[in-house]
Amino acid sequence: MPRASGPLSEALGRRVVLLDGGLSNQLTAQGCDLSGGLWSGRVLIERPEQVLAAHTAYVGAGAEVLITASYQVGYEALAARGHDRAETSALLRRSVDLAARAAEAAGHEVWVAASVGPYGAVLADGSEYRGRYGLSVRELVAFHQPRIEALLDAGPDVLALETIPDPDEAEALLTVLARTGAQAWLGYTVAGGRTRSGAPLAEAFALAAQSPQVIALGVNCCDPQEVLPALDAAAATTAKPLLAYPNDGSVWDSAAGTWHAPATEAPWPTGAWRRAGARLIGGCCRIGPARIAELGADVLG
Q: Which residues contact 199 (CB under 8 A, 6 or more apart)?
């Protein structure tokens, strides 16, 4: 099991905890092929030792939480590629096991967070940056519950409900959490001071503010400049620890299948984020181990 002396929720009550960075960019740096719609899930299937190596690189950079390679693994997407439900369940469990192996080998305390990506991630068309899929909350519950149950079977420390664009999807995920009793953090992806689907942040954060299963609330996979206003909005709705793990400010072009980098690097005012209540801080897409090491020196002292 991961080398963590207690629940992540308890650590967040005492101090800032350092997250890892983007898994896909690290896998690419290691020479892995992420094409074909499954993204890091393809490497999980074909080259699991590379997933372990990526987690190990983040442990070496000082990361205290490893997020699994399950973000884009879904039963429907894998079925379309010839994998049955048992195989997909095994892949979800594998993602947790690989992160746990890296955690066990660490020289410091490390928690494993099982990534639960949004419905749009499984579509592989960039729709997690739009939301409003045309599905009901009940349909989204039916999509997410089997994935979450399979991940929980592998014994992660916490679930990472991440890059959620839409309060409707958050409601579905909170329903599953209530049924399972699992602890999780919830990260919205935001733009222009709203969720990616256009919902007001106050409304989005208020959904999770009273959930006893949610141990932290905030934003991920967004421009760093979006973080502080979002944290302020979250702090107005909850006293829970907050989280921030933005990308580097790049914009995903789903048609071209590539990121468009910003003209200038956006600042990361981590001191202001901490003062706003951020206790889980790290990076998302295009943030690698070297940047996480720098971030750790900044936020952990």
A: 166, 167
- Residues 145, 110: Cα–Cα separation, whole Å: 26
**What is the largest distance, in Å, between two alpha-carbon atoms of the chain?**
49
**pTM here?**
0.95
74: region left, alpha or beta (phi > 0 left; psi from -120 to 50 alpha) = beta
Q: Which two tokens stand for residue 253?
A: 């072009």
Radius of gyration of the chain (CA): 17
Backbone angles phi and psi of 183, in degrees to 5: -85, 145
- DSSP H or E segment with residue 203: helix 201-209
In whole angstroms, what is the distance from residue 184 CA to residue 113 CA?
A: 8
Residues 77 and 91: their CA atoms lie apart, in Å, by 13
Among residues 103, 108, 128, the alpha carbon closest in space to that of 118 is found at 128
Q: How far apart are CA 82 and CA 158, in angstroms?
A: 30
Other beta carbons within 10 angstroms of residue 278's beta carbon come to 26
Side-chain half-sphere of 174: how many Cα atoms within 13 Å?
A: 23
Number of C-alpha atoms within 13 angstroms, CB side, residue 227?
Answer: 32
pLDDT score of 4: 73
Looking at the DSSP assignment, which residues form a beta bridge with residue 219? 188, 244
Confidence of residue 3 (pLDDT cuts 50, 70, 90): low
Strands (E), the chain: 17-18, 65-67, 111-116, 158-164, 184-188, 190-191, 194-195, 214-220, 242-245, 251-253, 258-260, 278-281
Over 70: is that where the pLDDT of 184 sits? yes
* Domains, the chain, ordered by start: 8-299 (3.20.20.330)
Residue-wise pLDDT tens digits, 98-145: 999 999 999 999 999 999 999 999 888 888 888 999 999 999 999 999
Task: State both tokens at 81.
Answer: 């590629």
